[in-house]
Each structure stands twice: as C-alpha cells, then as structure tokens.
Design goal:
The complex is a heterodimer of chains A (256) and B (187). Chain A is α+β, with helices and mostly antiparallel strands and 256 residues long. Chain A has helices spanning 3-14, 20-32, 34-53, 61-68, 85-91, 117-132, 144-154, 239-252; strands at residues 139-140, 170-179, 182-191, 194-202, 212-216, 219-226, 229-235. Chain A has eight helices and seven strands, in the order H-H-H-H-H-H-E-H-E-E-E-E-E-E-H. Classes of the chains: A alpha+beta (256), B mainly alpha (187). Chains A and B meet through helix 1, helix 3, helix 4, helix 5 and helix 8 of A and helix 1, helix 2, helix 3, helix 5 and helix 6 of B.
Chain lengths: 256, 187
C-alpha cells in the first residue's frame, strides 16, 4: 500500500469494504502508526456523528399515498381528484380498483447462513416473547441511572446502559432474560416506533470489532462484542439503523 | 389485467424504498416541494422502465432513477451546484494523511469536536457539499449502501465512489471540526 492510496483505503477499511488481504495490510499499518490510528478514530467519530445525527428525511404520508393511490371502482374512468396526473394517464382503461392491491408482506423470511443458529433462534424468540406477553420490561424507566443499578443488583455483572435519546434511541427500560444457558440483561429501546431488545452478557475479551447482521424469522439482528460483553440486538427495525445502534454501543466503551 | 399486475409489481418493488428515494431527492434539491416533484417524476419513469427491471435490487434500481432525475433537474434549475470535480483535486487529497484541523491540545480535540456536533450543525455541513459529493455521503451514511451499490446508482467506477467519499468526508471534517476547534480554543 502506497501513501498515495492509504487515505482512500482507510475509508474503505472504516466502511468494511476491503478484501481480506488489504484488511490485514491496513491492520498492520494501524498497529505500527499512532497517527494512522488517530486518523481512523477521527474518521469513525465523523461517521458515527453523521450516521446518527444527520436528518434522514421521510416522505410525508400524504405524498407517499398519492404515489400509490388506487382508483375507486365507480370512477375508474373518471380521473378522480387526488390521483396524480401521471398516474391517471397510466390507469386509463384499467380496472385497478378490482384488484385490491395487497402490498406484499415485507416480512421476507430467510436465514442467511447463520452459524450460531441455536442462539439466534433463542434471541429472536426472547424478543418475540417480550412483545407478546406484555412483559417488555421488568423495570420501565427512561433513566439509565435507574435501569443500570436495577440490573446490576440482580445479575453477576453490570451491563452498560446507554442514554441514546439524542441519537433517536429512547430507553424504555430493562428486563432480565436467560439466553444460551446464562442470565442476560435485556435493554429495551424504542426507535421510530420500533422496539429493539439489546441482549447483553459477559464474554471473553475480544479484539473483534465486527458487527454481524442477519435476518431470522423476519426480524433483523446484529451481533457484536465490546469491552468484555457480548451483544445481540433484535428488532423489526431496518439493518442500517440497527448497525448504527451497534456502533453507538461500541463507541461508548472506554477507548482501547 | 396485465396493467393491474404491472401496477401491483410496481408497488411491491417500489413502496419499501419511497423514503430512501425521498431522502436522496430532499438532500439534493434542498427543499420539500422540489423533492416531491422529482420523486413523482422518477416514479413515472420507474413505472415505464419496470419491464426492464429484473428484480435483483429494487432499491439501487429506484435510487438510480431518482438520482438521474435529480441531476437532470439540478442541471436545469441549479447548474452552479453541479460543480465538476477535477481528478487532480482528488489526487491531492490522497498524497498523505491530512493534518488534523486543530492540534496542540490534549485528548485529540478533533475527534472530540466531531462527536459533539449537533444534528443542526451536521445537516448544515452536509448542505455545503456539492451534489456529486453529497449524493455519495447520503447513499453511504444515511441509506447504508455498499460501495458497489453506490457505483451502480451513480454509474461510476468504485474507485470514483471511494475518492468522492474520502473527499466529502475531508470537507465535512473541515467544516465540523474546524469551527468547533476555533470555538473551543477561544473558550
């Protein structure tokens, strides 16, 4: 790797876009250079700030509806008010209303090669149970200073509880759970009306900072480790925003 | 019935990605009204082109149409925002690690500054980017597309995606960390 390309390669490393050989090369350069590590930390700080705080505009619902509005049966040739001009043209001569358009269920279900399939099954089941059984939290509180001690007093470890309200992840509370034969903490967050369970339990310290995403029974999961803890986050939230949550947890840990 | 099927297929493929389409158009046109016009125009084109879509990646397919509609709109309405990026400008950036934008203070103030920025500051910094840089940032950081997907949306080689992203992030850092450091140093 020449110095001419190191700048761009560092970005690709940050974005998880390098092949194995280049990743190893960048890692060894990072190990050797404090300046490069500092540079990566800055790029990462910028990325997390942009990803978590920049506005992601959503289509106003009236506008969204105007894009897909079906023609009423009785007026299928009369170009009803509210239907966009372009759509009317396309719809003439058709009996669209006869077809109750069922937006295909987006709960696409596939299991993408997960190795720890038993655990992912447990984790997703725990998430579903928490939604079904009216038992989302044992302690409902927005205050991390209440949730953290409550969990710590009942577990043999102190799970990190983050206040991520500024990033849009509102803390709902905490719950005790039991996963992989061990007690686990479940932190419950709400993001744009999506419930997220973040399961935490202690694990051997690891230098693996990867975030592994998968989909199981229609739910998205991310798995990662940070600061001697193993994490699984599960939600119907999109993988991108779950990844953001994972990064926030990883970033929040004390450096090094 | 064929048109009904086509319409159902259109809605199935497109409706999950309306927010992504709108977000890209909203950033590039910089206002709600024009974003809606552009997305509506793009939807019309997408419907026309639907027969050519083979169903691999509806999001990239739709975003490519939205992006091209946006750029046509920008060329007609705001040509000054379509700043060309000259290749040698990009090469200059990659010569070596850029110097920190503020230094001489402990605890890497730049990284701290970058973490302290508010949503409004970040949105403002993004809005100072020209369209070719802004689109790669929006697609990567807000929509979570891979380099390969971005390359397909903007119809450029992956190398161009990488250098534009690097360039955009350098500009953002200058805007975000620079102002924060000056403020911090005065306090």
């Amino acid at each position: 790797m020449t110095s001419e390309t190191s700048g761009v390669l560092l970005h690709a490393f940050l974005d998880g876009e390098l092949d194995a050989a280049s990743t190893i090369e960048v890692e060894s350069r990072l190990k050797a250079s404090t300046a490069l590590r500092q540079e990566l930390a800055r790029l990462s700080a910028l990325q997390i700030s942009v990803q978590s705080r920049a506005t992601r505009f959503t289509a106003p619902s009236a506008f969204r509806q105007s894009l897909f509005v079906p023609l009423p049966a009785s007026q299928s040739s009369a170009a009803p008010i509210g239907v966009p001009r372009w759509w009317r043209g396309l719809a003439i001569g058709t009996s669209i209303a006869a077809l109750a358009i069922v937006v295909a269920s987006l709960g696409f279900i596939f299991t993408a090669g997960d190795k720890s399939s038993a655990l992912v099954e447990e984790v997703v089941s725990a998430h579903v149970r928490s939604l079904l059984a009216d038992h989302l939290t044992d302690l409902a509180s927005k205050e991390r200073h209440q949730v953290k001690p409550w969990l710590s007093n009942r577990l043999d470890f102190a799970p990190p509880v983050l206040d991520l309200a500024n990033e849009g992840f509102a803390l709902v509370g905490g719950r005790l759970d039991y996963l992989g034969g061990k007690p686990a903490a479940a932190l419950v967050y709400l993001y744009r009306q999506h419930i997220i369970n973040v399961f935490v339990w202690p694990s051997a310290p690891s230098r693996d900072h990867s975030i592994r995403a998968s989909t199981h029974r229609g739910y998205n999961t991310v798995q990662f480790a940070s600061d001697g803890m193993s994490y699984w986050a599960v939600s119907d939230l999109n993988p991108h925003d779950l990844d953001k949550l994972a990064k926030l947890f990883q970033l929040a840990q004390p450096a090094n | 019935m064929d048109s009904d099927n086509k319409r159902a297929r259109f809605e199935t493929n497109v409706s999950p990605h309306v927010d992504a389409a709108y977000n890209l158009a909203r950033w590039l046109t910089r206002n709600e009204h024009d974003a809606q016009d552009v997305v509506q125009e793009a939807m019309l084109r997408a419907f026309r082109f639907l027969d050519g879509f083979r169903g691999a990646d509806a999001r990239s397919w739709l975003l490519k149409i939205v992006r091209n509609t946006c750029f046509t709109w920008l060329r007609n309405n705001r040509p000054n925002e379509m700043v060309e990026i000259f290749p040698n400008q990009l090469n200059d950036l990659e010569v070596d690690l850029p110097p920190p934008f503020c230094s001489g203070l402990p605890d890497d103030p730049e990284a701290l500054a970058l973490r302290r920025n508010t949503a409004a500051q970040i949105d403002n910094a993004l809005s100072t980017l020209s369209a070719p840089l802004l689109e790669v940032v929006v697609l990567r950081e807000l929509e979570g597309l891979s380099y390969k997907e971005i390359a397909s949306v903007i119809d450029a080689p992956i190398g161009t995606v990488m250098s534009r992203l690097a360039r955009a992030r350098a500009d953002l850092r200058r805007t975000l960390a620079g102002s924060q450091c000056v403020l911090g140093a005065r306090k």
